């Protein structure tokens, strides 16, 4: 039975050991203990942050482990000797088996409690006092074997903050119980007098919340509200200091200067603020030094670095406060980012994309323009060359042209002479004269046509696209060259397709291209025997959707490796050649969306093909 009880005990101990994070195995790091004695409720934001600071400072270091116990005295809300007596009894029982290595006492009330009751509960534990002002009255509370880290907002600092917010300050209103406590703000009257002798002060520290709210609703300009912690409304209802402040702020018509970081964001403008996490951390660090073996008496009480001027940006805007007026080293929180700050990266990315796009568009436009200029120049050059080419052709053909003109001119002359002779008769046959004159007119028209053809061939029109019949176009070229062909004794054979072939293009240009091919053909057969002196021009369709003109001769053909090269400018194999005829033809046909190529016919001789898109059907 006894054995079973023993086993159960061991089991319970082990279970507790597993459940408790603080429980350390016998051979693990040494366990030490800190008791945090807070004057108020641990759950309030201010005191819970102090506790968090102490916990952060007491992190395990591998060699030792620190257990932190915490007690809230809460004597402000639960006053009276009976509660205090029962609290002492409770703590004595609770900690009877738990040795405390160091006590961290938070707040003046805790210090007072320890002064009166420590001997009863923890007689030997050293003490670190935290969160209390450095005043003779507080130092008088210190027990032997203790040290302290002070934390205090000086009354003068409240005035400095108030004047930063209200530069022409003449009047302050004091709100909150702590103003009554000489151990919190000390002797604020002297401090205020030293800082601003003419300051008008309305002390509402004793007033109930209802009165405070109505008073602060109609304060004069040039005034500010200086708050300290407030726990009750004075009529039996208790608040957390933050929510009490929020209630005051609801109706206040003047800016509120606050004293704790935990009040920030609750309608207070800001001020020199106590920073509870740092207060806890500083006290915790001193407690750790004591746990490491330093004697408390060797650590001289010192002021912590736990107060900082901090302001709420939204409230600064509400009260039109110039940030330049804030005390040096001030921090401004809740700053709402400007549109630019908020969307900085979005804007940068969008701007970059737009910029890159704009650059690309500019580059593309520039290239387009350059290409356009180059095309215009090329067209211009092509047109000049074509013109030159035409004039050269015309020059060559002048003999045959003269011959072609000679015929009608000679006929006109003969007819005119005949008419003259008839008219010399006493009874001239006027009917015959009329016929002769008709002939003269017809011959004159023929001559005019020859000249007109030459003129239209030589003119340098800007490109004009018209629908034209390829059969007629090729036919005209053949007619135009007929005299030259006759002179060189070359047969020109036109084999037009039975139906019209309509294409869209510049007639003069297309005729120029075809003419160059026919002239080349005639030159290719010029030296050959009679039976080979012929050039055939055919028109037709490819697959029913492309127009085709083929100029074939029976000459020696083209060297196979030169069939593409011959279209390059200035390629010639002729002693007197310019090498531009085919390149001009090539340019013209490409400009019309067509294709030109050469091949050797199986029966001998070269064939030049020109394909062109058909004119869209109407
Ligand atoms: P050119 O007639 O002044 O030489 P072209 O550009 O008209 O210039 O012709 C280029 C070259 O192509 C000619 O020199 C010739 O070698 C070749 N060529 C053109 N047409 C024919 C053809 N029908 N038969 C054989 N070779 C030709």
State the CATH class of the domain at 373-613: Alpha Beta
Mean pLDDT rating: 87
CATH architecture of the domain at 373-613: 2-Layer Sandwich
Give a count of the beta strands, DSSP E runs of length 2 or more.
20
Strand arrangement in the largest pleated sheet: 2-1-3-4-5-11
Low-pLDDT windows of residues = 10-27
What name does CATH use for the topology of the domain at 373-613? Heat Shock Protein 90
CATH homology superfamily of the domain at 373-613 = Histidine kinase-like ATPase, C-terminal domain
Radius of gyration: 57 Å
Helix/strand-derived category reads alpha/beta
Major sheet characteristics: 6 strands, parallel
Taking the alpha carbons of the first and last residues, their distance comes to 118 Å
DSSP helix fraction: 40-55%
The coarse silhouette is rod-shaped
Work out the helix count.
Answer: 17
Taken as a percent bin, the fraction of beta residues is 15-25%
Give the distinct bound molecules: adenosine-5'-diphosphate
Quick tags:
five-stranded mixed sheet; rod-shaped; six-stranded parallel sheet; alpha/beta; binds adenosine-5'-diphosphate; about 625 residues; 17 helices; Heat Shock Protein 90; Rossmann fold; single chain
Would you give an account of this structure?
This protein has helices at residues 2-19, 45-57, 81-94, 108-121, 136-139, 155-165, 188-195, 209-216, 241-251, 276-291, 313-318, 339-342, 344-424, 430-458, 470-488, 507-525, 581-591; strands at 30-38, 64-72, 102-106, 127-130, 146-150, 171-175, 200-203, 223-227, 256-257, 270-274, 302-303, 307-312, 331-333, 466-469, 491-495, 502-505, 534-542, 546-553, 595-600, 606-613. By secondary structure, it is α/β, with parallel strands linked by helices. Among the domains are: 155-275 and 306-333, Rossmann fold, CATH 3.40.50.2300; 337-372; 373-613, Heat Shock Protein 90, CATH 3.30.565. A six-stranded parallel sheet has the order 2-1-3-4-5-11. It has a five-stranded mixed sheet with strand order 15-17-18-20-19. The protein is rod-shaped. The termini are far apart. Residues 10-27 have low confidence and may be disordered. Bound molecules: adenosine-5'-diphosphate.
